[in-house]
Every structure is written in C-alpha cells, then in structure tokens.
Predict the structure of Response regulator transcription factor.
Amino acid sequence: MNLLLVEDDTMLAEALCAGIRQHGFRVDHVGDAARAKTALVDHDFDAVLLDLGLPGSSGLSVLSFVRGRYDATPVLIITARDKLSDRIAGLDAGADDYIVKPFQPDELFARLRAVVRRSQGRVSPVLSHHGVVLDPARREVSRDGVTVPLSAHEFRTLLMLMERQGRVVTREQLEEAVYGSSGTIESNTIAVYVHQLRRKLGEQLIVTVHGQGYRINGGGSA
C-alpha cells in the first residue's frame, strides 16, 4: 500500500512514518498543502492521511482539490480538532474517515485498512485465491490452511497482486509498492520475488504477461 502523509508536525510525522513502514506500507511525507497537491498530481496513492491544521492553507483545501479532480483516493483526516462541526465539515467535504489526535496506532491502521478496502469494493479484510489466503491485518499468508512464511518484500509483492486480482500489475508498480521507487533496483529483482512466491504458493498462482507485468491467475474472491 502506497500512502501520502500530510502532516506539519515533524516529530509526529516521523513517528507515523516509522509505524507505517513497520506495517509494511510505503509512505511519502509532505508538510504543507501546496506540496500535498503537487504529490497528488505526480503520484498515485492508495490513501491519504491528512492533517487539517497545515501552514498556509487548510487541509480542507487539499481535500477539495482531490475531490475537485474527481479523484476517489481514500482520505483519512487525522487532526486535533475534535468539535462535531469540524468532523461534519471534513466528512461533508469528501473525507472517508476522521480520527482525532491523540490516537492509538492500531486504531489508525484499522481505519486505514477499512477505507482502502471499501474503495476497492471489498467487504472482507482477507484476500483469497484458490487456497491462498492473505490477511493484511495480521500480515499472514497461508496455503490450504498451512501458514507460509514470507519475507517483507515477498509479502508486499503478493499483497499488491492480490489486491488487483484480474488486472495486470507492471514491474514498475511492484517496485513502487515494494521499495517506494522504480528504476533504481536491479531489473530482475521483482522477477526473483515472483519466482519465490511461485515456489512457496504454487507455480500457477502468478502469471507473467509478457511485455506488461504480472497478474494473479484467473478469477478469485477478495
């Protein structure tokens, strides 16, 4: 999952980024509305964590910018503003959820997973395909009921593919999800992770679409 954190409190942002990365997510951080808007134009994110009290311009201006572009990226407001009127204003402006500081990290990540899941049209938090089950919350993968240990990079690769069942995912998209960048690692790195996933979870799980990328084989349920 690729996230954008818009937060002007440097210490809080550093702590949040560290926690996000520990959960296996990729995160970019900006501290003001102008840079947030630029990042949202230049990159695709799975969700935005948005503070309201930003220097120069309110976080609501970022939210209005996102929705004004007909961008459906999930936005989770994280703010110290706890008045009912503030929560209503944020949700009416297009936010998918609203959480008041200080908050417990586990609640933040649960809410984050929920808004992303809803945006993908999924009801269950668990992803499954032909006996392979991936639980993003527990960071667990099993095959036919047996737990399969994966490295952090293997897990992120599989998560990206299973979240997009039925669609081709390019090598560049996988590099972005796994490393936070593309074009800066060896060209066969993603192929190595795909090979390892096939070895652990079945040769038929992931199909190579030549000249395009990879996809989960056939249909499945999420």
